[in-house]
Amino acid sequence: MDFNKTIYENRQELGRPFLVAHRGVCGANVPCNSIAAYKIALQQKADVIEIDVAKSKDGKFFVFHPGMEHVFLKSKPISEMKASEVRKLRLLNQDSTPTSYKVPTLQEVLKLLKGKVYINVDKFWTDIEGIANEIYKAGVEKQVIVKTGDDKPTLDKVKKYAPEFMFIPIVWHKDTVTQKLIKEGVNVIGVEILFDSDEDDCISEKYIKKMHKNKLLIWTNAIIYDERAVISAHHTDDISAAGEPEKGWGWLIDKNVDFIQTDWLLMLKQYMATR
User: Fold this and answer.
1) Is 235 inside a domain boundary?
2) Residues 33 and 51 sit within 8 Å (Cβ to Cβ)
3) Which residues face 54 on adjacent strands?
4) What is the pTM of this model?
5) What total of structural domains would you count in the chain?
6) How many CA atoms lie within 13 A of 86 on its CB side?
7) Does 1 fall in a domain?
8) From residue 19, how far is each of 48, 87, 205, 220 by CA, in Å?
9) Contact call for residues 23 and 52 (beta carbons, < 8 A)
10) What pLDDT digit, counting tens, does each position of 193-239 carry?
11) Which of 46, 126, 227, 253 would give a disulfide with 41, using CB separation of 3.0 to 4.6 Å?
12) Residues 217 and 8 sit within 8 Å (Cβ to Cβ)
């Protein structure tokens, strides 16, 4: 990937959607958001890797999904621990058995991914100034994609501390924010669309063509973690990996979207190779 080109230019040259590895590639003994999960995602040639950021009580940044400590660590929240305590913890595997994998620091992960893939830094809004400083320190600002709310105080922080970062707002059903953000001077490169119906405006051919005409990209999610929260009208990893990929991944690809976030990276790549 040439990070000196715009992400739109790289998408055009690629000729297919960017494949986003959600929290890396995990399973069995390899926990999500671990160094091993990111190394596997690199080996499987992900285009984008999504990471989560958590902050310790004493202000150190780690890669972990805040609020999931009871699942992956069986500990209290990282926000209530000092960095020295976090470093003693070991991530749990899918059977809730402790592994040898530590909770990586944000710098460790950014160093691993530098110059290799785009990086979607989730939870960026929790400390825009602090996380932005870490990203600049690692020298990966041209690779980073972030998202936050669209309220003025938050956008002012984005413009002040992260003016170079690629930004995608989250759109439910209908896009009412993109043009506002562009006018605000935010470096918008596309939108993340969430939809629970095939008829939603944000997944319509008309809307997607309009966005592409303006050189803006469409991010979609095939991932599913709560069946009550429908974010891609059931065009998911589940239905795709279980034997009907044309109803999931294929449907999204046919809509000409630009990102597909998945937990089944290699299987999605194999499916795309047969189309």
Assistant:
1) yes
2) yes
3) 62
4) 0.97
5) 1
6) 24
7) no
8) 6, 31, 21, 10
9) yes
10) 999 999 999 999 999 999 999 999 999 999 998 889 899 999 999 99
11) 46
12) yes
